[in-house]
Automatic annotation (TrEMBL):
GO terms for biological process: peptide transport; protein transport; transmembrane transport. The keyword Iron-sulfur does not apply. CDD domains: TM_PBP2. This is Peptide/nickel transport system permease protein. Its main location: membrane. Residues 75-264 form the ABC transmembrane type-1 domain. The keyword Transmembrane applies. It is a multi-pass membrane protein. One of its GO terms (cellular component) is plasma membrane. The lineage of its organism: Bacteria, Pseudomonadati, Pseudomonadota, Alphaproteobacteria, Rhodobacterales. The chain crosses the membrane at residues 12-34, 71-104, 116-135, 141-158, 202-222, 242-264. It comes from the Bacteria. Keywords: Cell membrane, Membrane, Peptide transport, Protein transport, Transmembrane, Transmembrane helix, Transport. PANTHER family: D,D-DIPEPTIDE TRANSPORT SYSTEM PERMEASE PROTEIN DDPC-RELATED, OLIGOPEPTIDE TRANSPORT SYSTEM PERMEASE PROTEIN APPC.
Length: 279
């Protein structure tokens, strides 16, 4: 059975895949799915803070804009931040972990101590400090998340590489005269991909949650961008009367993070041979 088939047999993973698929489709087709795409950043003071209705499914915000339309367009910002930030973190962390685990001793010690410097400070605190220094923007949020997330992948690949370096197939490749780069890229890296994929899926959820926290603190996309975290922050002063204003983006964040976590758990069960044997 294919990987996708095994993944779909896991109910939780199937739900996570469905949620993520809907997120991607919403981000791509937001201009066509949103009932009021032209009003995402418009002012309609006569319609401000209207409760959910047939005309406005999730109500309206303090500017009178349709909350449902803003949630759909906010998915674009969310998925852009998550994909780029995680992609950069993987691109930085995986090579560092691979080199550190393969060479060990001085080289590995220097690289891993560098990652320890970043891990010594809670990730969210470090991300807030960097974003605050650079100023509020989507680009700065991506940079802050990338600079604080790469050590997690570096540590993971380092541990996997250390465990694989003494395996027979690696020693055989070295005995046949394969270069260190060839051994790392063609023999060790493919055997770490399952762990990297699982960590990346779970990391996407964590990245979205942290990005929402930065937006809530005013460090994300500047207004009037429909960023989910900022929307919740703006809605605080209207609670509990306009409960829908904060509830809609909060529910969106909850569902997306849950989707990535469910998918990550499913991928772990499918890609880990030891867990498959126990089933």
């Amino acid at each position: 059975m294919s990987l996708f088939g095994r993944l779909m047999r896991d109910r939780a993973a199937a739900i996570g895949t469905l949620i993520i698929g809907v997120l991607v489709l919403v981000a791509i087709f937001a201009p066509w799915l949103a009932p009021y795409p032209e009003d995402v950043a418009a002012f309609h003071l006569t319609d401000r803070l209207q409760p959910p209705s047939a005309e406005h499914w999730f109500g309206t915000d303090r500017m009178g804009s349709d909350v449902f339309s803003r949630i759909l367009f906010g998915a674009r910002i969310t998925i852009t931040i998550a994909v780029i930030a995680v992609g950069v973190s993987v691109a930085i962390g995986v090579p560092i972990g691979l080199v550190a685990g393969y060479y060990g001793r001085f080289t590995g010690g220097v690289l891993m101590r560098t990652s320890d410097v970043f891990l010594a400070v809670p990730q969210i605190v470090l991300a807030i400090a960097i974003a605050q220094t650079l100023g509020p923007s989507v680009e700065n949020v991506i940079l802050a998340l990338s600079l604080t997330y790469w050590p997690f992948w570096a540590r993971l690949v380092y541990a996997e590489t250390r465990a694989l370096k003494g395996q027979t197939f690696v020693e055989a490749a070295q005995a046949l005269g394969a270069s260190d780069l060839r051994v790392m890229v063609l023999h060790i890296l493919p055997n770490t991909l399952s762990a990297i994929i699982v960590r990346t899926s779970i990391g996407m959820g964590a990245t979205i949650l942290t990005a929402a926290a930065l937006g809530f603190l005013g460090l994300g996309a500047p207004p009037p961008a429909p960023e989910w975290g900022r929307t919740i922050s703006e809605a605080r002063e209207f609670l509990p009367e306009a409960w829908w204003y904060a509830a809609a983006p909060g529910l969106a964040i909850f569902l997306v993070v849950m989707g990535f976590n469910l998918l990550g758990d499913g991928l772990r069960d499918v890609l880990d041979p030891k867990l498959r044997k126990g089933r």
